[in-house]
Design brief:
The protein has 398 residues and is of the alpha/beta class. Helices cover 40% and strands 15% of the residues. It is built from 18 helices and 13 strands. It has helices at 21-31, 60-65, 79-90, 103-107, 111-117, 142-148, 151-154, 168-191, 201-208, 210-219, 254-263, 279-284, 286-297, 302-311, 322-326, 329-333, 374-380, 385-393, and strands spanning 12-16, 35-40, 69-73, 94-97, 122-127, 156-157, 160-161, 195-200, 236-240, 246-250, 315-318, 337-340, 347-350. Strands 3-2-1-4-5-8 form a six-stranded parallel beta sheet, with helices on both faces. Helix 2 links the parallel strand 2 and strand 3. Helix 8 crosses helix 9 (201-208). The longest helix has 24 residues, at 168-191.
Length: 398
């Protein structure tokens, strides 16, 4: 049987985007077959291009978020550059922007304006705090939103709150923008009309804070910061092994504790000891519980400890660093790595986690150089050689 095409084949997306939230959202659309036209500044492009040079001389954020796109470099402050964007949008299905608050509206590129002019268009506004309210004008970098959303308050150790090691607010907003576009496309298929989609980083991350938020609002106390431990389960932590590794284990119920005591700790009597027999008792005696587990695992290598825990039916994991993730045997066994073309040559990248069996594999296109597709896109909106030359001469395009 023939494979199904990618679900967004034939969909065109125009994005005036920068940093992570909008680029990561539109990369998901590109992976699923959409044509994504990325509009960048003429003076350096998306500023994420300059974050670092870790990915073969390119910025790691940019490589991660921008494969499979066409890059056009335009000066949107020049009416001729803005006219090019409007021409591209007129032929598009989806428009996405995450400019600073008010900037898109000043250019006439906000969702409300564009959807009024193009009833079938789906137009996405991604912002830090939403289009109204006292925080609408505040700068909204990922770390700032992590703080405002309370994520930092529940992450870290009892003595030190810390931000997440990934841009959680950006990613949350990106994934709601992605799913919002998909939902709007389904609705357009039924009604024939597109419409605005609004996503704010704060509201997206606040939703992800649901468990600790409900715990605090309805239970009175926020969950404690416990590092790798669990606030209400013990044992649940990472323990050092003899070879310098760390193994995390989680005992979810008292039956598992009895198995751990008998098969791993070699102390079957702990399974019925009143100080340890119930989870409440183990939490109350967390230091002693952790000491018992740590002492046994410290005599074992990480592989040996994991094997012993697995055979006892105890949930466990190796605490891996990023190089170990890159070599993870599960990712290798499931053939999740591909090569993506970039201006610096091919780089490894993971297949997106959304898999559609029976269909074409995700389209992991090349990471574009700045303005790589400017000329063909200008021709696509009807510009002549002379007009293009004039735009280049005046610095309106690159």
């Amino acid at each position: 049987m023939d494979q199904l095409p990618l679900p967004l084949e034939g969909i065109t997306v125009v994005a005036v985007e920068q940093a992570v939230s909008a680029p990561f959202a539109t990369r998901q659309l590109a992976d699923l077959g959409a044509r994504v036209v990325k509009v960048e500044r003429v003076d350096g492009g998306d500023f994420a291009r300059g974050y670092d040079t870790a990915a073969g001389g390119l910025a790691s954020h940019f490589v991660w978020c921008n494969r499979g796109k066409e890059s056009i470099a335009l000066d949107l402050k020049d009416p001729r550059g803005l006219a090019v964007v409007r021409g591209l949008v007129a032929e598009a299905d989806v428009f996405v922007q995450n400019l600073a608050h008010g900037a898109a509206a000043r250019l006439g590129l906000d969702a409300a304006t564009l959807c009024a002019a193009h009833p079938r268009l789906i137009a996405v506004d991604i912002s830090g705090y939403g289009g109204s309210g006292p925080y609408a004008d505040k700068r909204a970098y990922d770390m700032l939103v992590q703080c405002e959303a309370g994520l930092v308050s529940v992450t870290g150790t009892p003595g030190q709150p810390v931000k997440a090691g990934i841009p959680a607010a950006d990613i949350a907003a990106a994934m709601y923008a992605f799913s919002g576009v998909l939902a709007a496309l389904v609705r357009r298929g039924v009604t024939g009309r597109g419409g605005p989609v609004e996503v704010s980083m704060l509201e997206a991350l606040a939703e992800w804070m649901g468990h600790p938020l409900h715990h605090a609002m309805h239970g009175g106390e926020p969950p404690a910061r416990t590092g790798l431990a669990h606030a209400v389960i013990a044992p649940y932590d990472a323990y050092p092994t003899a070879d310098g590794g760390r193994v995390l284990l989680s005992v979810q119920n008292d039956r598992e504790w009895r198995r751990l005591a008998e098969q791993v700790l070699n102390r079957p009597e702990l399974g019925t000891d009143p100080d340890f027999a119930t989870n409440a008792a183990r939490v109350a005696n967390r230091a002693r519980t952790d000491e018992l587990v740590a002492r046994e695992l410290a005599a074992l290598g990480a592989d040996e400890a994991l094997d012993l825990l697995e055979r006892a039916g105890i949930a466990c994991a190796r605490l891996r660093d990023l190089h170990e993730l890159a070599g993870h045997p599960q990712l290798a066994a499931r053939d999740r790595w591909r090569q993506v073309g970039t201006p610096a040559g091919p780089l490894k990248a993971l297949l997106p986690p959304l898999t559609l069996p029976g269909g074409e594999e995700a389209r992991m296109g090349d990471v574009p150089a700045l303005g790589q597709h400017t000329e063909p896109l200008l021709r696509a909106v009807g510009m002549t050689d002379g007009e293009i030359a004039a735009l280049r001469r005046d610095g309106v395009v690159a």
